[in-house]
Predict the 3D structure of the following.
Amino acid sequence: MTEECIILAGGLGTRLGRITKKIPKPLIEVNNKPFILYIIENLYRQGIRKFYILTWYKNQFFLKKIPKKFKNSKIFIIKEKNKLGTAGCIVNILDKLGKSFFVVNGDTFFDINIRDLEKKTNDNTSKIGIGLKYSLTHKDYKSYQIKNNLVTGYNKNNKKNKLVCGGIYYFKKNVFDRLKKRNLDIDHDIVSQYTKKNRKITAVIYNKDFIDIGTYYFLKKAKKFIEKKNYRPAAFLDRDGVINHDYEYVHMQKNFVWKKNIFKAIKLLNDSGFRVFIITNQAGIANGFYSEKKFKILNSWMLKQFMKHGSFIDQVYYCPYHPIAKIKKYRKKTNMRKPGNGMIIRAFNDWKIKRKGSFLIGDTSADIEAGKKSNLKSYFVKSNIYSQIARIISQNTV
């Protein structure tokens, strides 16, 4: 699964006049923070760990305002010597990229599950996937024409309820292999050429919130939009017994047996706008049954399996400590260990979480107690967790 994303941030932003004469559009502050950082945060939670910000106009501002890291991801700011367009700038850094990557606009926020776009593109054996949205307001956007979930061209006559790109693409690297480094456009030089040659471009329509800060009208709306997208309700899930069957001290792939419908359940949470956290006691580390390193290897594998199924986990919190641990460095009484709620508190400190609508699902009384200490609605896991989560969501307005 790809962990790389290109953010296109080289445009002049002329529609914003005097504002972008001073600062590039992706760096305009919304709620006291550059808009582009909200994009990075949202993609990070979906598993992106390498960001390439491609710049041209006023590149020095990006170097001043954007950190080289966000949590455990790396951010690379790359300046074009000459303006290369939305596709040419990708050709410019092709040697740095893996076999596949996402591309997003630095001035738009489309609140979709990117892992769903990736999976549907791969399932369709396409080299390009595009996230689309019906829009009544984006009159200057091109209107896509699709058939059987594939892009067939543009509908030039559709000026009302247009099917527009939300500024998120998924590409296989070899799409760009034969292109030369020059001024190239994604729509004109790649999408149009692919459709003319009847090559498959997967189109996925999402009925999700979208904003483009490129006009004064939408820039004014960005404050409320970001507040809504930044603060999300969260689902806190125990691991053993909820995500996988609890066979005691599970620490290897061969013993990791998924609970029925768990991928479908997590995807439902993702698509419904929830943050998803796993909170798990790992006394097996404290008692020497397996190392912390082995736990992290299994954890990395687990997260990739979710992404392969079109879903994602925002973060996994674990407690390796136990008050009577066999290994001395893990011998510790701590609120991190359930029934303590330290892992939940840490998640609230690390992320913007809306308490209303948030909930916990576990399989032991320790899980439930940890949730209640945090004033979360807490439930024992049912045999069909997908149906259980669907009922919980239906009782709360996200």
Remarks:
- The mean pLDDT is 94.
- The longest strand covers residues 162-172.
- The chain has two domains: 4-230, 234-394.
- The first helix runs from residue 18 to 22.
